[in-house]
Amino acid sequence: MTLKQAGFTAIIIIGIVAILSFLSSNNILSINAEMLFYTRWLAIISLGIYGLKKKSLTSWILIAMIIGAEIGHDFPEAAKNLQVLSKVFLKMIKAIVAPLLFGTLVYGIAGHADLKQVGRMGWKSILYFEIVTTLALFIGLAAINISKAGVGIKVPAGHHEELPDLPPQSWNDIILHIFPENIAKSVAEGQILQIVVFSIIFGIGLAMVREDKRMPMLNFAESLAEVMFKFTNIVMYFAPIGVGAAIAYTVGHMGLGILLNLIQLLATLYAALIIFLLFVLLPIALMTGVSIKRFWQAISGPVSIAFATTSSEAALPKAMENLEALGVPRKIVAFVMPTGYSFNLDGTTLYLALASIFVAQAAGINFSFGHQLLIVFTLMLTSKGVAGVPRASLVILLGTAASFGMPTWPIFIILGIDELMDMARTSVNVIGNCLATIVIAKWEGEFHPKNDSELQ
């Protein structure tokens, strides 16, 4: 069977299964549940055959997501035990991040010894980040004011899920959080921004020493970066299993029915993110001159991983490798991507704007537009540097609610669908940072698209 035949077969079988499921769920046609079970798995087998023919990492990740969702739906108890596989994958990815950032940044700075460019990239990146995240903030604000998803919400019973203990951050805390006191501690805690700051200063210091002292460390940094990219390739073979397990666990412990709960809020977020992608990021991508098709080929794999695992870190190593293959110099990729993880959280910023006003609407508080702006700008500032903390956005919302006199119970309602919302905002974070890297490379005059890169 050829790839084309396998694809057509999979589409036909999936179409039949979708029609049968629709007819059954709407009581138009009485179909045995066991028959539906077998037809769904027949469709999945057809997708598996297509994946074997396609031999693409991205294809297998997407197929694994479908298989994981089906396992979570059909065997929820077994699916809950699969979380360990997704945690193994995330642990292996997190093991890559620190040495990869150190090696690429140190070699990128000291290897070219252009310290002026580092400063130039710094202010250009911050300027771009703030413009784009501000646009995201206004789109989120507009979306929730139009949909009014929080109006009419009543306090439900039984919302007792615990949130991680993350105290509110002052200006001093935000500034101090940027600088490492112990690089080993920063690596252990996964503090990306602190690792970046240490690596930049280390690279500048290395560039300032004489050549005979510089070259051994420079060669080490280059070798470390190359090894970690190969390490990434090895770990990516496990990606479909890790991603499938993550989706299986999500569906297994939440159920497909969760899609029906708080659907208006969920739809508002997804619609706002789509508008942001189409009317902000797409025009920016077109202005850079990058081929949209090739850009999507470069980021589709990392975005799929981010969506399934709700972790931006999980997508970082592969995204960096693919952007370099796309034609962005390693020194720019290594600087902009990790910096953006703290300062360019487009999806998270949009979500925070939307969720904060949702809380006010649910509580029956009618804030003026000026007051709403004050809330969301506060959220944008206090969210810096906490991207790696699980459900940190919800904790930030709790602190902000207390600061502005809002009740906290609407935030606990969001917990029910936060995982589904986190999938979307994390994916947009990754897309936004990948595009930001290309923008800065283009701005520096160093974006040279390659015609023969192999992207997965």
Please explain how this structure is put together.
Helices cover 77% and strands 0% of the residues. With 456 residues, the chain is mainly alpha-helical. It has 2 domains: 3-80, no CATH class; 83-443, Sodium:dicarboxylate symporter (Proton glutamate symport protein), CATH 1.10.3860.
Question: Strands, helices and their partners?
Answer:
Elements: H1 3-25, H2 33-54, H3 57-74, H4 76-80, H5 83-110, H6 115-147, H7 171-178, H8 183-189, H9 192-208, H10 211-236, H11 239-254, H12 263-288, H13 292-309, H14 312-326, H15 330-343, H16 346-362, H17 369-382, H18 392-403, H19 409-414, H20 418-443
Helix pairs in contact: 1-2, 2-3, 3-11, 3-13, 5-9, 5-10, 5-11, 5-14, 5-15, 6-12, 6-15, 6-16, 9-15, 11-13, 12-16, 12-20, 13-14, 13-20, 14-15, 14-20, 15-20, 16-17, 16-18, 16-20
